Amino acid sequence: MLGGTTEASALAAALAARGNDAVLSYAGRVAEPKAQPIAVRVGGFGGVDGLVAYLREQGVTHMVDATHPFAARMSANAVLAAERAGVAYIALTRPAWLPVAGDRWTRVADIDAAVAALNGPPRRVMLALGRMHVDAFAEQPQHDYLLRFVDVPDQPPGLPRHHLVVDRGPFDVEGDRQLMASRGIEVVVCKNAGGTGASAKLHAARALGLSVIMIDRPALPARREVHAVADVMRWLDHGADRGV
């Protein structure tokens, strides 16, 4: 299983509960990942060729891609590697968020577009993106940025004006509402990660009447997707064929 999400942890628990021989692979971007009840490996595979080699060497028969919806390269590599190695493949992913009444979304295609959307006078901006893409927003140095990371970064973020909160979710609506209100946030920038685990910030932004710059999901190859652990378990038991 390719993991790093809440869904991956839930599937790991389900597999462990019935004694499946399974390994959870992390990219290694979090210093202290959550403890898991199955075997864990950390690090990349070396592209498609490396993943194919790993699948064959380990005798893997089924692969579940439960990575973040924005882990586009890993997911694309997984689809190709599964096909080449003759491994049954399925993606466990979250339904994308959709705006509802009261939302003030501006949808953009990627990080560069999100940076461009912040052009204009100084505002107080919450970057709900993790740490990977934060430095790109140095192109808009006029804003005061609120950042929330899982770990303390090795080096300070490359933003001239920012406030960093180090905290690990899941977060709740009231906590996020208080955080945004206390910092005077006017705009929230986030990726359309989907699901319920990371949606508190959207409910909080709606309650406060804040603008949201929503980054759309990247395009991925055609693949079989499900949205629940139970669907993966049924697939493992009844519907998994070799290949995608």
3D architecture notes:
It is a single chain. The protein contains 7 helices and 11 strands. With 244 residues, the protein is of the alpha/beta class. It folds into 2 domains: 6-94 and 219-239, Rossmann fold (3-Layer(aba) Sandwich); 105-215, 3-Layer(aba) Sandwich (Rossmann fold). Strands 5-10-9-6-7-8 form a 6-stranded parallel sheet. A 3-stranded parallel sheet has the order 3-4-11. Helix 2 (47-57) crosses helix 3 and helix 5 crosses helix 6 (200-208). The radius of gyration is 19 Å and the shape is elongated.
Describe the structure using short key phrases.
244 residues, alpha/beta, Rossmann fold, six-stranded parallel beta sheet
CATH fold-level topology of the largest domain:
Rossmann fold
For the record, give the distance between the C-alpha atoms at the N and C termini, rounded to a whole number. 15 Å
Rg calculated over all Cα atoms: 19 Å
Instruction: Tell me the strand order in the biggest sheet.
Output: 5-10-9-6-7-8
Average per-residue pLDDT, rounded, comes to: 93
What proportion of the residues form beta strands (DSSP E)?
Answer: 15-25%
Which of globular, elongated, flat, extended, rod-shaped describes the shape?
elongated
CATH class of the largest domain, anyone?
Answer: Alpha Beta
Q: Find the count of extended strands (DSSP E, 2+ residues).
A: 11
Number of structurally distinct domains: 2
Count of runs of 4 or more consecutive helical residues? 7
The CATH architecture designation of the largest domain is 3-Layer(aba) Sandwich
Taken in chain order, the helices and strands follow as HEEHEHEEHEEEHEHEEH
Class inferred from helices and paired strands: alpha/beta
User: Which residue ranges are poorly predicted, with pLDDT under 50 across at least 5 consecutive positions?
Assistant: none
> How would you name the CATH homologous superfamily of the largest domain?
NAD(P)-binding Rossmann-like Domain
Can you summarize the main beta sheet? 6 strands, parallel
What is the helix fraction of residues, given as a range? 25-40%
